[in-house]
Design brief:
globular
Length: about 300
C-alpha cells in the first residue's frame, strides 16, 4: 500500500518538470522570432563593381596614337631611345589592383609634350553603397574640383535685345520712333546704354576669337567653336574635358587638356600638356582636345572590351 502511494507522487513531479521545460522552449522561440537583427531580416550587400583588376597602363596606348600625341618620338634617330619613349614610365603605386598610371615626356624641335594616364578602381567598404555608386560620388567631386564654367550669358545676351520692349528699333538711322513723345526720353536712355555696352562686348568677343590669342587660364578663344571646358557624352558612363592655358613669365605659354571619364567603378584621367619651344606661340586648343578625346575613347573601348 505504501508503494502505491509513492508512485503517483513521482508521476506528478515528472509532469511538473515536463510542463516547465515546454514553457521555457516556447518563450525562447518567441524571443528569437521577435529579434529584428536576426539573420532572416539582414539587408543584402550592395553589388560589387564590374572591374576587379586594372590593365597595365603603359601598354594601353599603341605606337600610332603616341606618335600623334608626342610628335617628338618620330624625330628620334636612336632606336633604343625611341623604344624607351614609347614604353613610358609607370607611376609609383602600392596597389596595382586599385590604382595605376603611366607618364610620357618627349621633346621635339617645336614643343615639349607630356602625357599622363591614371586609372583608379573604386571599392566601397560600405555594404549599403555599391562600388559603382561610390565611384559616381568620387567622380562628381572630381568634376566639381575641375571648376567647369557654367554656360555663359553670351548667347542669351545676344538675343536679349530681340526680346526687350524694342528700344533699339529707334536706334537705326532714319527710322521713325513709333511711340509717342512720352516714351521718347526713356527709349533714348535705353539706346544710349545699349550703345555704350555694345562696343565693349564686340571688342571682348573679337579679342578672344583668334585661336592664338589671349592668356586666359581657361581658353575662351575657341569658345565659338564649342571647345570650352564641358561635360562629354561620347564615352564612359560620364565624362568631362578641361582646357587651361597658363603662362610662366618669359617662357612660352603651356596648355593642359584634361579628359576624365568613369566606366562602372573605374575612373580614368588623362592629362595632355604641350609647351611650345618658341616664346609667344600658343598650343592649338582644338588639335589638343581632339587628340585627348580620341585617346579617351580608345581607353574606354579597351575597358569595355
Amino acid at each position: 500500500m505504501q508503494r502505491r502511494a509513492y508512485v503517483p507522487g513521482v508521476a506528478a513531479l515528472l509532469a511538473a518538470l515536463l510542463a516547465g521545460c515546454t514553457g521555457s522552449s516556447s518563450s525562447g522561440s518567441q524571443s528569437g522570432n521577435s529579434n529584428p537583427g536576426g539573420a532572416g531580416t539582414a539587408s543584402p550587400a550592395a553589388q560589387p563593381g564590374r572591374y576587379a583588376t586594372l590593365p597595365e597602363p603603359c601598354g594601353t596606348v599603341d605606337a600610332k596614337t603616341l606618335d600623334e600625341l608626342l610628335p617628338g618620338i618620330r624625330e628620334m634617330a636612336d632606336q633604343a631611345q625611341r623604344e624607351k619613349a614609347y614604353a613610358g614610365e609607370a607611376s609609383l603605386t602600392y596597389d596595382t589592383d586599385r590604382k595605376v598610371g603611366c607618364r610620357w615626356k618627349v621633346e621635339s624641335s617645336q614643343a615639349t609634350d607630356r602625357l599622363v594616364i591614371d586609372l583608379e578602381r573604386v571599392v566601397s567598404y560600405d555594404n549599403a553603397v555599391s562600388d559603382d555608386n561610390q565611384a559616381q560620388q568620387l567622380f562628381a567631386t572630381k568634376q566639381e574640383a575641375a571648376g567647369l564654367p557654367k554656360p555663359t550669358a553670351t548667347e542669351s545676351g545676344s538675343t536679349a535685345p530681340d526680346t526687350s520692349p524694342s528700344p533699339t528699333s529707334s536706334d537705326s538711322p532714319g527710322s521713325p520712333n513709333p511711340s509717342g513723345s512720352s516714351g521718347s526720353s526713356s527709349s533714348s536712355d535705353s539706346s544710349d546704354s545699349s550703345d555704350s555696352s555694345a562696343p565693349s562686348d564686340a571688342a571682348s568677343s573679337a579679342s578672344g576669337s583668334p585661336s592664338t590669342g589671349g592668356t586666359s587660364p581657361v581658353s575662351p578663344s575657341t569658345s565659338p567653336s564649342g571647345l570650352q571646358p564641358r561635360v562629354l557624352e561620347e564615352f564612359g558612363d560620364e565624362a568631362f574635358i578641361d582646357d587651361e592655358l597658363s603662362s610662366s613669365g618669359s617662357t612660352a605659354e603651356q596648355r593642359t587638356v584634361t579628359v576624365a571619364f568613369r566606366t562602372s567603378n573605374v575612373i580614368v584621367t588623362i592629362e595632355y600638356t604641350e609647351q611650345p619651344a618658341t616664346v609667344g606661340a600658343v598650343p592649338d586648343s582644338r588639335e589638343m582636345q581632339d587628340r585627348a578625346r580620341k585617346l579617351a575613347s580608345l581607353l574606354a573601348d579597351s575597358l569595355s572590351g
